[in-house]
Design brief:
Number of helices: 9
Order of helices and strands: HEHHHEHEHHEHH
Strand order of the largest sheet: 2-1-3-4
Shape: globular
Largest sheet: 4 strands, parallel
Oligomer: single chain
Structural class: alpha/beta
Bound molecules: iron/sulfur cluster
């Protein structure tokens, strides 16, 4: 068994924050030692928890449209790795909406996985939790609209329907950032 296979097995067996997970642990991620594109997302929703497939929902459809790639390409683990900030469904907030990714998860697992994915050339940080963890404080909009401030990384909003209003207010995301992102992703995945 390779070191990455061993790490995957350990992560899939993780129960660290089981007392906080209303549906129990079910870590969802996609990794390989050859992936050149890494997507760091938020946390599974109930649909992703049920299927065990990352971004297998409307948000995933929107993200694939942003990237200009098919489902087949998106789920080709040899080329694309997907690590959420929290691998398991975190439940709901009392006031509605999904709870934040469990804070234990990224500090426990991310550095270990990144060390075993040496071919990464481009990282997409998707949503405010990934942006804050990897880029530090600052507004989501500022991070997204200044891709040259963090080479090798694109900052993206979480691709939920709630982002539609933000996109309307920030048209350069559609007219400038997304074409650039699609070109970089296409060149990387050729
Ligand atoms: S969210 Fe992460 S740290 Fe918590 S049980 Fe799942 S895999 Fe383990």
């Amino acid at each position: 068994m390779t070191p990455l296979q061993t790490l995957k097995r350990r992560a899939h067996a993780c129960t660290l924050c089981a007392p906080h997970l209303p549906l129990g642990p079910r870590p969802v991620f996609q990794v390989s030692s050859t992936a050149r594109l890494l997507i760091i997302g938020q946390a599974p929703g109930t649909k992703v928890h049920a299927s065990g497939i990352p971004f297998n929902d409307a948000s995933g459809d929107r993200l694939r449209a942003w990237l200009g790639i098919s489902r087949a390409t998106f789920y080709d683990a040899a080329r694309i790795a997907i690590l959420p900030m929290g691998f398991c469904y975190p439940g709901r907030l009392p006031q509605g909406g999904d709870a934040p990714p469990r804070p234990e998860c990224a500090p426990l697992w991310h550095a270990q996985f990144l060390a075993l994915m040496p071919q990464r050339q481009l990282t997409l940080l998707v949503g405010s939790y990934a942006l804050r963890y990897y880029l530090g404080p600052g507004s989501m909009t500022a991070h997204v609209l200044t891709p040259d401030a963090h080479p090798g990384t694109f900052a993206l909003p979480h691709p939920s329907w709630r982002t539609l209003g933000w996109e309307a207010k920030n048209p350069s995301f559609t007219t400038e950032i997304l074409p650039r992102l699609r070109a970089d992703v296409a060149a990387l995945l050729e």
